[in-house]
Design a protein that fits this description.
The complex is a heterodimer. Chain A is mostly loops. The longest helix of chain A has 10 residues. The radius of gyration of chain A is 25 Å and the shape is elongated. About 25% of the residues of chain A have low confidence. The longest helix of chain B is centred in the first third of the chain and has 26 residues. The N and C termini of chain B lie close together (about 10 Å). Classes of the chains: A little secondary structure, B alpha+beta. Chains A and B meet through helix 1 of A and helix 1, helix 2, strand 2, strand 3 and strand 4 of B.
Chain lengths: ~70, ~210
């Protein structure tokens, strides 16, 4: 026997179109980030036996010294 | 229908409406959360945080900042992201998740990062459900903060899954070594990711009011 399961019916219904319009009005261009895209990857020459450099997140470049250990910390 | 499902539906419905209310205010002002966080900045230096001291919200239990920086792993449309932290006591903040934003201020995806990236205390996933059940609601808070909080609450289940996948990735990486050593491994940055489709999410909870299966 097919079991029917009703879901709770709640008040206010907003059309999908209204949501789309609302979201669309919040689509506003953000100011450009400076140096957001690296123009050229750096070439790092590593001698045999030397350790590979640590990966970076990109946060480090402008972070104050205290924050460099955890580049995206509060 | 179980009580748990009713509660989940009610939670999602409530936070969808809260988010829609924020979006309505933003739409009227032709703005978005990223623009509000950026203030009057005309250009953004790599890594600079907005606002400088972070944005406190939800009764100062949560804190976030927005910034942009080059990142090979980032979405091609990403402009920047919010890093979101919660107060875990003893004046400590723990990073819960980050929310990537496109060039038009729209959310792209949630993601988690390794501890060396954000520092501070490691956020214990078990705390998330408790934090979400202490849901705080206050119209007097800043609009960007209210939007972020409504996003956190609406995506509660997704964020729980995101954090569980983050923990699984840490376990996978640490092998026989403890997780403490993995937290500092610079070769491990991004831990988990979850796409955001706000229109579909809101439509799912607010437009479809009754279903039968």
């Amino acid at each position: 026997m097919k079991r029917k399961q009703g879901r709770i019916i709640m008040g206010t219904a907003i059309s999908a179109a209204a949501i789309a319009v609302m979201i669309d009005h919040t689509r506003q261009r953000l100011p450009e980030g400076k140096n957001q895209v690296a123009t050229q990857a750096a070439v790092i020459i590593i001698d045999e036996g030397e350790e590979l450099p640590a990966a970076t997140t990109g946060c480090e470049e402008s972070a104050p010294k205290g924050r460099r250990q955890a580049p995206c910390s509060l | 229908m179980s009580l748990r499902n009713v509660q989940k539906d009610a939670h999602a419905y409530h936070w969808s409406l809260r988010l829609l209310s924020c979006l309505g205010e933003m739409a009227a002002g032709e703005t978005n959360a990223a623009l509000l966080a950026l203030g009057n900045a005309e250009s953004i230096a790599n890594g600079t945080r907005f606002p400088d001291q972070g944005l406190l919200f939800a009764n100062e239990r949560w804190r976030a900042f927005y910034h942009c920086h080059a990142d090979e792993a980032a979405h091609p449309d990403e402009h920047g992201h919010f890093h979101i932290f919660t107060d875990v006591g003893d004046r400590q903040w723990a990073h819960v998740a980050a929310l990537a934003i496109d060039g038009y201020g729209q959310p792209l995806h949630w993601f988690t990062v390794n501890r060396w990236v954000t520092g501070g205390a490691w956020f214990e996933t078990a705390r998330f459900r408790a934090l979400a059940s202490e849901a705080f609601d206050d119209d007097k808070e800043a609009l960007a903060g209210r939007w972020l909080y409504a996003m956190l609450m609406l995506y509660q289940a997704d964020l729980l899954d995101l954090l569980n996948r983050r923990d699984a990735r840490i376990r996978e990486c640490c092998g026989s070594a403890g997780s403490e050593s993995t937290f500092d491994r610079r070769d491990i940055h991004l831990l988990s990711k979850c796409d955001v489709d706000l229109e579909t999410k809101l439509g799912m909870h607010v437009c479809v009011q009754s279903r039968c299966s």
